[in-house]
Amino acid sequence: MTASMPRSPMPRSPLPSLATPPELGPVTIEVLRNAFTATAAEMDVTVWRTSRSTIVREMLDYSTAVFDRDGYNIAQSARIPGHLNSMSAGLLTIVRDFLPLDRWAEGDVVITNDPYCGGQHIPDILAYRPVYAEGQRIAIVGTLCHHLDMGGMAAGSYAATATEIFQEGLRIPPLKLVRGGVMNEDVLAMMRQNVRRPDMLMGDLQAQLASLAVGHGTMQRLAARFGPSTIVEVCRRLLDGSERAVRAMIGRIPDGRYSFEDFLDDDGIVPEPIRIHTAIEVRGEEMTVDLSGCGKQATGPINATLASSGSAVYYAVMAIADRDIPANAGCYRPVTVIAPDGLIVNPSHPAPVANRVAVAHRLATTMFGALHQAVPGRVPAAYYGVSYVCSFQTIGEKGERGVLVEIEIGGTGAYDDQDGLSAYSYGMHNNASIPIEMIEADVPLTVTGYGLIDGSGGAGRHRGGLGLFREWRVDSPAAVFTANLERFKFQPYGLEGGEPGRAGKLYLIRNGTRESLGSKINNLPLVQGDIIRLETSGGGGYGPVDQRSATKREHDRICGYAG
Questions:
Q1: Where would I find the beta strands (DSSP E) of 351-477?
Q2: Residue 67 neighbours by CB under 8 Å, 6+ apart
């Protein structure tokens, strides 16, 4: 069976009791569009100010959005592309297959983290709350947080050697965590019992609920001011407007078929590369993205459900837009994604998916490689293309556990008119660096080194950005280390004669001796004094090396960028 993401929206629910909206001019529509975006931004700030864990509070690995009454994304905060482009797909899966919207009510909060029920991977908890006015549902607000730990065989729920999803942590099916304003304490008790840091989980979950309350209140105030029917009608027009804009953008791309491929190093279990292939067909104002050439689903945990894969496709399409387009679910309508069941981009249950972002990143760079053929000059060379996920579980003298999840970044690819950016969060994620002081205050680890890697960017007329190195020293009596990494074998590609960025590396330094490690490590035992050193990839270069100006070559030499 071949799965595809729909080209046109699902049928909309009727509005029998809402008054006909007044005539809407462009000013009112624009005012409300910005109000919806501001609502998502207010929700964003609420999570940031009330969360507990470093992965949410400092790394900012969360997203917030506002949806229309049927579950289509109409506004989002400036957070994680991989989250935002999939939150609508997750919500639509929930209401289609598990909890239809006619079973939702005022005061309900629905959550899930199950990748096969609308989620992405187990650490990400989706939470949605409906908004009612005059007895009718007018919108839905939602948050997604990457939680520090959800149990499973490795700290951070990022087991690098899992072979089925049952090993990856606690799965929460779509359910009402809050029903009519009353918290389901039994569900909370079950969650606390199955994770390594229940205090952090409960704190970050409460931040999500606070964010939903802020979004709910703001949308109700907008409905009181403008009228419920106006809110619903403006949502419809915003979706239709973005659809028209994306169709026009696609229409400016030359018709044709454009394909590109890249490879994942391996899945951590089977030492073989995995093909990621994209074939893009542009016909008029519509685009079809065929992923049928991708490799079969992996034994190890780097599979990506269709929601994750689709989010990478949509991100790449929006990233090459030649004009500003309001980002919402209407943007997805002219794009069809084809992905047969059983592939790494659309795995069958119970395939493990903890490191699904490896596929999403590689899909994004593969999409860019194909789109470069269609719109040369608009697409950069490959960025580092991986979330460098490292997790530590420290073990104290009395057995107390600490958990740190770090997600490092690398160099971006060069453009046809400028160098790439060094150590810059790019592509499918939008994370911040956890301040060293916060790490050392939270867990018994010391960061002994942090900086750029000279010469790691691909050479070219314009140089790729540099990767970074980071070193963590274990200060507790013992610890275990898990890594889900990529780009150790297949370097970020250059374009138009530019050279690839340098591959990543990982080392264990013990008693002064450096040992090279692979890209996927699960529960490596560490002792006090051990140092883990990560070196991330640089970005690809753009254009022939011999066309780089003498001035820029001298600047590279002085700054150490050339290696």
A1: 388-395, 401-408, 445-452, 468-474
A2: 73, 74, 87, 88, 91, 128, 139, 140, 141, 142
Dist CA 89 CA 518 (whole Å): 34
Exposure of 159 in the CB half-sphere (CA atoms within 13 A): 21
pLDDT tens for each residue of the chain, 563 residues long:
355 554 434 445 544 455 566 678 999 999 999 999 999 999 999 999 999 999 999 999 999 999 999 999 999 987 887 776 789 999 999 999 999 999 999 999 999 999 999 999 999 999 999 999 999 999 999 999 999 999 999 999 999 999 999 999 999 999 999 999 999 999 999 999 999 999 999 999 999 999 999 999 999 999 999 999 999 999 999 999 999 999 999 999 999 999 999 999 999 999 999 999 999 999 999 999 999 999 999 999 999 999 999 999 999 999 999 999 999 999 999 999 999 999 999 999 999 999 999 999 999 999 999 999 999 989 999 999 999 999 999 999 999 999 999 999 999 999 999 999 999 999 888 888 999 999 999 999 999 999 999 999 999 999 999 999 999 999 999 999 999 999 999 999 999 999 999 999 999 999 999 999 999 999 999 999 999 999 999 999 999 999 999 999 999 988 888 76
Do residues 273 and 357 make contact, with C-beta atoms less than 8 angstroms apart? no
Q: How far apart are CA 554 and CA 547, in angstroms?
A: 14
CA 55-382-482 angle, to 5 degrees, is 35
Greatest extent of the chain over all pairs of C-alpha atoms, in Å: 75
Amino acid identity for residue 112 in this structure: T
Instruction: Please measure the distance between the N-terminal and C-terminal CA atoms of the chain and give it in whole angstroms.
Output: 50
Question: What is the Cα–Cα distance from 314 to 334, expressed in whole angstroms?
Answer: 10
Say whether pTM exceeds 0.70: yes
Q: What is the DSSP letter of 91?
A: H
39 C-beta neighbours (distance < 10 Å), count: 27
158 and 391 Cβ atoms separated by less than 8 Å: yes
Cα–Cα distance, 117 to 460 (Å, whole number): 45
Helix, strand, coil percent values for the chain (each to nearest 5)? 30, 25, 45
